[in-house]
Design goal:
By secondary structure, the chain is α/β, with parallel strands linked by helices. The protein is about 45% helix and about 15% strand. The structure holds 3-methylbut-3-enyl trihydrogen diphosphate (2 copies) and magnesium ion.
């Protein structure tokens, strides 16, 4: 692809995979058909990112707020998740992908928790791309839980208030140890975060496309990366400083 540099790849890409419902509705299909196609799109993006050598990929798969959707849709999504994770285990081993779930995992159905924990254990020693699925995820809840864990350490006398730093907070998040996303992609044209990675995206580059998630493919992903590569990341400095 023209202008695509393999040297300047984002280390970590996060994706808000949105638009499954609208994709299906525009075809007069049930929403669930959109989710099924969405799984295919996710599989392709995982494959391409892993082949490109991206260090980490975080996919917003199910938010805490999504629990309030109709029960039938939630049940179907949980079913897809369980069967998809089972069927992708061999691909992950083959590609050396390390899997990690981020979110309030205890809220998921028992059978899904089991598959998630098994897959984390099975892939723990892999050294390729880290694949994080955000499941039952809420960034505000993540930050609240981090606050509680830190407060508990202080209460237990293990930590002094003066020693609390940004690193302390980072280490208490679900995503601890993973560099912040360099690039955040959101499909379906919505320009919002929907409670995703609020702490981690402080200096992330945002890319929004009107493409609905089930239609998102390799070409769209490479276009997002190419656009990212054209950005000047200043981190609060001046252009002159960054260039120098
Ligand atoms: C994203 O697609 C998948 C989930 C949130 C689980 P949506 O289901 O939100 O699709 P739209 O936004 O209704 O089109
Ligand atoms: C965000 O999409 C959550 C996921 C993609 C899993 P939503 O469809 O839930 O977000 P809103 O409701 O449009 O903000
Ligand atoms: Mg949506």
């Amino acid at each position: 692809m023209e202008g695509f540099e393999l040297e300047n790849l984002p280390r970590h890409i996060a994706v808000i995979m949105d638009g499954n419902g609208r994709w299906a509705e525009s075809r007069r299909l049930g929403r669930i058909r959109g989710h099924r196609r969405g799984v295919e799109a996710a599989r392709e993006v995982v494959r391409v990112c892993s082949e490109l050598g991206i260090g980490a990929l975080t996919l917003y798969t199910f938010s805490k707020e999504n629990w309030s959707r109709p029960k039938k849709e939630v049940d179907m999504l949980m079913g897809f998740l369980e069967s998809h994770l089972k069927s992708e285990a061999s691909m992950m081993m083959e590609k050396g992908i390390r899997f990690r779930a981020v979110g309030n995992i205890g809220e998921l159905p028992e059978s899904v928790i089991r598959v998630v924990r098994d897959l984390e254990a099975e892939t723990a020693a892999n050294t390729g791309m880290l694949l994080q699925l955000a499941l039952s995820y809420s960034a505000r809840e993540e930050i609240t839980e981090a606050c509680k864990a830190i407060a508990q350490k202080v209460a237990d006398g293990e930590l002094n208030v003066e020693d609390i730093s940004e690193e302390t907070v980072e280490a208490a998040l679900y995503t601890s140890g993973v560099p912040d996303p360099d690039l955040l992609i959101r499909t379906s044209g919505e320009i919002r975060l929907s409670n995703f990675l609020l702490w981690q995206v402080a200096y992330t580059e945002f890319y929004v496309t009107d493409v609905l998630w089930p239609d998102f493919n390799r070409k769209h992903l490479l276009e997002a990366i190419r656009c990212y590569q054209g950005r000047e990341r200043r981190f609060g400095l001046t252009t002159e400083q960054v260039a120098g």
